[in-house]
Design goal:
single chain; 303 residues; Rossmann fold; ten-stranded mixed β-sheet; binds zinc ion
Amino acid sequence: MFKTPFITLVALALQFSLTSITSSAADKKDAAKIKVLLVDGQNNHDWMRCSPVMMETLDATGRFSIERAIVTKFEVEKFNPDFSKYDVVLSNYNGASWKKETKESFVKYIKEGGSLVVVHAADNSFPQWKEFNEMIGLGGWGGRNEKDGPYVYWKDGKIVRDDSKGRGGSHGSHWEYKVIVREKDHPITRGLPTEFLQAKEELYDRLRGPGKNMTILATAFAKGGSDRHEPVLMTISYGKGRIFHTVMGHSHTSMKGVAFQETLIRGTEWAATGKVTFPSVTATELPVDRAASREPKDIKPFK
Ligand code: ZN
């Protein structure tokens, strides 16, 4: 059925509650901003409280304009946005499979140079979707095991790909874990302290997946979990697309961790543009001797 652009937009809004935190008065100013589509609406985590922290964090920098697609299980069959309208898709989604048409459109978008940011349990989603698992590099739960790819971790100064049998995805108890930058010469990590603490939360371990075209930027030691240095920040290339994957971000409180916020900001800009233009983050702002947290409103705007 033919639809005019206006009707399509209205239909889109009705179908999956597309909302925006930018006002129409700011539309002109927004033209230069990085356009983000945050997708949520289903997750085994508290997406209703988590997503606003991410939106406010990105918005506080002044660098991003954010739209949100709330894809509940009742709306997933209707979800089929024009991904090409956005510079980057930010997934906080861990739910029902998207319909075939949407998945194909998303793969095309990424292959042709689109961008994806995957946060925490978003890497639990779509265990059966081969292309998505290639995009995220590593994933957990959903029946993932050795059939999905190796465990990938850091040992004795290098990356290990471990094909041993076993489940994909687990975690120990909640604690303030130390993130260690392993790839210092990447736009996301250049300008970050080499070690810093993340706010109290669980640390994913034993993720597995194809891990192709993947760079592990930072790891953390999964004390009481796998007892291995597990990937925390990763980049993956897929076709012409750029993907940033962070395992941080379990809760709305841990998303107020400066470690989560600064890596989300830099990772989202890098995924969208291939560059990071934000200033360096000092060890005072992002320390290793305590887990720094702040409200998104206290983030300085980008200049
Ligand atoms: Zn979690």
